Amino acid sequence: MPFKSNFVANAGAASVTLSSGVNLSSNLFLLSADRTISGSFLDASDSAVGLPGVLVPIQTQNGLLTVAFTDTNGNFKAGVTAGFWKVEVSDQETAGHNYLRPQNKVQVDATAGSVSGVTITLPKANAIFYGTVKDGSNQPVANISLFSGDEQGNFEQNVTSAADGTYFAGAYGNGNTAWQIQSSQDGNPANYIFSSPSFDFSQNGGTNLLAGQALHVNFVALTATNQITGHVQDHNNSPITGVQVVASATINGANFQTQIDTDGGGNYSLNVANGTWSVSVSCQGGNDSLNNILGFGNYQCPGGLGVIISNNNAVANFTIQQCNGIQVLSPTNLPDGQIGVFYSTSLSASTCSGNANWSLNSGSLPPGFNLNASGFITGTCSSTGTYNFNASVSDGATATNHDFSIKILPQATPPTLGQPTRFGTHFQFTVNGSVGQNYTIQAATNLGSTNWTSILVTNPTLNTFQISDTNATNPARFYRILLGP
Question: Which residues lie closer than 8 Å to 280 by C-beta, 6 or more apart?
């Protein structure tokens, strides 16, 4: 595409297909701009501070595109033509300034003429996620796209891992808004799958951050050598196109998830690694959900399918039934519990006739656990073991039964700290803990202190890991470790 001030490029007409051994001649055209869109990118907490040197893409839905750059005060001005334009901001520049990018694009109506005073405010990050991206052999993986985002979908920051696999992604901590950090679906190698932290939105609603907090999260990138393929069709065997299919697995204590939309024939193919995978069709969510494609209340959301990959490929097909009856969505193996730790999970079912009411049909819940009519299982158990039971769910018109299992694990082994060693002004020490357990590391300047300071909250991927206290300026320093965030 060509670019020039006061001209507009046609991105839709710039695409060419190049075959091996063939030379192409492609003429490119610019449309002369006859009006402008101007405005500013400003600090959300101080409107006197503008963001300089920011790349501003401005485009229409039908493929017209122009770009501008902000000046030293954060002001921009771009030549456009008549129509509706959306104003964006480049990921790299906002992250470079340590600001968060709005996820919602600003729409500007330039059909009647020039538009000025378009003001876009960006909050500055006051907390960070940091860590590494490494492969299954613990080697760093560079140039992997990651993004942090809040649960409301207001702001995000997109970053890439460095040559040594490290990354830093900004967030906004206020203690009330949940955030997550994930690998991006755009631009990353298709032959990798990436782990997800346990606090992503699908697991437990993200994590609340405080101003000044730095949360350590490492990612594992596994080579995806096999495929799960299949198709999604309706009750008339007609393909359902453009619906998202998701596969998730826990491999070596890390959570992995990969997804793709079905093609024009309702087919999909997911690259996966060895492990036990749960494959499901997205029923709720964005444009690629069944709610959007078929309409809410017109279908039964299908349950997930279990697939085992052990150096093999597998097939998982889905047939979406019309809205009748009731279908259990929860998997047979519910999340594990732990002795002495409060447990909470919920059973879910798809029904179009009314609310789903649950009851225990046979078998036994773990001692101290209860199942209420809404499907919530809660309680605290004092006995290890695997507890199998059958639950019935009814929507008032029909009912169905489903087998479930909950495994209760022993109490977590208390972590131990190695003797700290000093390097200049830094102290470092080894922690012997458990993979997947949340820990909070605290420090104080005297052993009897009532003012212990948290220096790190971590969820390790190894049983033994090392802590460095780079802020140790006092000659006496004491450390302790707590279970949980």
Answer: 245, 246, 247, 302, 303, 304, 305
Measuring CA to CA, how many Å separate 191 from each of 161, 188, 227?
17, 9, 10
pLDDT band at 204; cut points 50, 70, 90: low
Tell me how far CA of residue 286 lies from CA of 62, 70, 178, 196, 321, in angstroms: 21, 32, 19, 20, 21
Is CATH 2.60.40.10 correct for 7-122? yes
Residue 55 neighbours by CB distance under 10 Å: 16
Would you mind telling me the total number of residues written for the chain in this entry? 485
Among 107-116, 238-247, 397-406, where is mean pLDDT lowest? Answer: 397-406
In DSSP notation, 82-95 reads SSEEEE---HHHHH
Tokens of 155: 């702001």
Fold of 224-323: Immunoglobulin-like (2.60.40)
CA atoms of 468 and 360, how far apart (whole Å): 50
- Domain 416-483 fold is Immunoglobulin-like (2.60.40)
The rounded radius of gyration (Å) of the Cα atoms in the chain is 26
Nearest to 130 by CA among 101, 164, 105, 154: 164
The residues, any chain, with a CB within 8 Å of residue 235's CB and separated by 6 or more, are: 319, 320, 321, 322
Tokens of 147: 């993004």
pLDDT band at 480 (very low <50, low <70, confident <90, very high): confident
CATH 3.65.10.10 fits 127-222, yes or no: no
**Angle 278-279-284 from CA coordinates, rounded to 5°:** 115
pLDDT tops 90 at residue 87 = yes
Distance between CA 362 and CA 347 in Å, rounded?
16
Task: Give the distance, in angstroms, between the CA of residue 74 and the centroid of all CA atoms in the same chain.
Answer: 30
Predicted model pTM: 0.58
Q: Render pLDDT for 402-424 as a digit per residue (tens, 0 to 9).
A: 999 999 988 777 788 888 777 76
* Alpha-carbon dihedral sign for residues 365, 335, 454, 433: positive
φ/ψ of 204, rounded to 5, equals: -150, 30
Please state, as a whole number, how many other Cβ atoms lie within 10 Å of the Cβ of residue 482. Answer: 14
7-122 and 224-323 have identical folds? yes
Domain boundaries, the chain: 7-122, 127-222, 224-323, 327-409, 416-483
Is residue 101 within 8 A of residue 150, CB to CB? The reply is no
Residue with tokens 């101290």, as numbered in its chain: 368
CATH of domain 327-409: 2.60.40.10
Evaluate whether 55 touches 135 at the Cβ level (below 8 Å): no
Residue of 411, 402, 354 whose CA lies nearest to 381 = 411
Q: Residue 349: is it exposed, middle or buried by C-beta count within 10 angstroms (0-12/13-18/19+)?
A: buried
User: What is the rounded distance in angstroms from the CA atom of residue 190 to the CA atom of residue 188?
Assistant: 6
